[in-house]
Amino acid sequence: MKLPFRTHSVIAALGLAGAALLLPAHAQIKIAMVIPTTGPLTQYGDMVKEGVNTAVELANAAGGVAGKKIELVAVDDACEPKQGPVAANRVVNGKIGYVVGPVCSGASIAAAPIYNNEGVVVVTPSATSPALTDGKNYHFVFRTIGRDDQQGPAAAKFIAEKVKPKKVAILHDKQSYGQGIASSVQADLKKAGIPVALFEGINAGDSDYSAVITKLKSAGVDFVYYGGYHPEMGLLLRQAGEQGLKVRMMGPEGVGNPEVNAIAGPAVEGMLVTLPADFSANPKNAAVVKAFQDKKRNASGAFQLTAFAATQAILEGIKAVGDNPAKVADHLHKATVETVLGPVSWNKQGDLNAFDFQVFEWHKDGSKTPAAK
Fold it and tell me: How many CA atoms lie within 13 Å of 28's alpha carbon, on the beta-carbon side?
């Protein structure tokens, strides 16, 4: 299926047309970015914003969609479940029919019923919890990222086949995303015959995890998997090093944030993380990557290109059937859309039919490389 815009033909115009982005006088189609602009997880919102902004700049430079320009509206949910419905109501009251986001699983789960009931097309580039879509029969909710029950097995397979630990501890932040991915990893490690000596929740936002580190030492574990986000992972890494616990740690894409380096310091070296494949390395995306670089944005982060793809999906739907969210949702359930992730399609509950998670090794300079072991 043809893209809603061809990036190679509009890159040259981007410098001229980029200045027109977000001018209300010319915008005729509104897309909300529901992202954390406050709270401890704003970096993930920044990643999504970079991807959406770049996609919309390119689309507007090419004349928009069906002759209409696109206006972006940022709506803050702080990645908090209690703020998810508040943000959703802001979108509905603003008569916005399309959303890229929400970013975090907990906020997505809390907000999804409102979006679905009000007929707002939602494409999240980052919420991975199966609970968002399982058994819900949502017609308007989609993802451009895989689920935890795809990511968890990828992590467990790497642990079992490459790391080969003798005894594993699994920690999580007691939240929908963190506990869900931790449970998935636990289940697959048990299938692989890897003993899980400790499965325990920690309190997100705490500043001292010395008690749990003492438990890890007492249990004699030689590998730790953490389900959650980078603030807690950074502290776990740093405090484990300070207390002489020399084990390797691994986490999901929620820990793959350069801010983890500032928290963990040198102890971050060698951290393992599952992330979407590095779609920025695909030569077919060279023009898109250049558009990111021209704006001093990073196309290789965890969610920039999944957010770009979410925007592409919405714009492709509008191009195909018009500016009608119900018809766009119908279209996406049937379509295969060409995106920076490759061709994507969805099952009846809005999950991708396939997605590629890979394991990377994180370094103290903030870079990452494909993990070998």
Answer: 14
